[in-house]
Amino acid sequence: MAVAILQARMSSTRLPGKVMKRLAGRPMVERQIERIRRCRPLGRIIVATSTDPSDDPLAAHLESLGVDVFRGPLIDVLGRYMGAARAFAVTGQVVRLTADCPLADPDVIDACVRLHARLGVDYVSNGRQPTYPHGLDVEAFGLDALEAAEREAVDPYEREHVTPFIYRRPERFTLAALTQDIDESHLRWTVDTPEDFDFVERVYAALYEVKPDFTSDDVRALPFAHYGSTG
User: In a 3-state reduction of DSSP, which class is residue 64?
Assistant: First the structure.
């Protein structure tokens, strides 16, 4: 079974504390975990946050809910990921997710994990050749690739963003992309700004009460689903 590591922090520059903003009555990070738990190939979900005091309320809240939490460096997120993998004895597939995507699609995550397993490659993502809305991002990779990145990466960008050490080296690591037939990469279903949060609030207000396990197709059917579109 794959293990999802969800990176989260309170110190976002554009929307501080966004992961704990209330969404349909609960913190946004809870809503995302609720959706991720519907992923069939995932055996465990770990939230990797930082040891910075600003993340104390986040860690305490998640631990009170029984969520697995690892705390590591604030900026060296690659080191934080490897620390989480070691702390929870991860041995197989690692799935990287970020906690600003409360519209995360379990079917897309499942498809990425299964493609990674079927092809036997080092790394699969739906973000390197983007066709999905921004906010459905997922990466799946093997522990060996993560260990190599953590051991060898010195570029600050590669330390902060976890996987660039892998996908920047196609001569060393085998890579594959998960894509869909229609290109929706111009859509913003993530939360970086107050406007983004307003959008996902509207989605949850329209769908969550009547269908808490709403799908991406349910979101697409909303009259305002094309938020962020540049087309």
Answer: helix
AA identity, residue 196: D
Query: Which residue's structure tokens are 């996987």?
Result: 163
Contact between residue 186 and residue 231 where contact means Cβ atoms under 8 Å apart: yes
The CA distance from 50 to 62, in Å, is: 13
- Taking the C-alpha atoms of 82, 83, 87 and 89 in order, what is their torsion angle to the nearest 10 degrees? 10
Reported as type and span, the H/E element at residue 202 is helix 194-207
Mean pLDDT by runs of 10 across the 231 residues of the chain is 96 93 98 97 97 98 97 98 98 96 98 97 97 98 98 98 98 98 96 96 98 98 82 42
Q: What is the strand order of the sheet 42-50 is part of?
A: 68-72, 42-50, 2-7, 93-98, 139-142, 123-125, 175-177
Angstrom CA distances, 150 to 69, 85, 87, 145, 187, stand at: 20, 11, 15, 9, 32
pLDDT at 19: 97
In the beta sheet, which residues pair with residue 153?
A: none
The tokens 């959706």 sit on which residue? 35
Distance between the two ends of the chain, CA-based, in angstroms? 39
What percentage of the chain's residues is helix, strand, coil (to nearest 5)? 40, 20, 45
At 220, which helix (H) or strand (E)?
Answer: helix 216-220
Strand 2-7 to 42-50 pairing: parallel
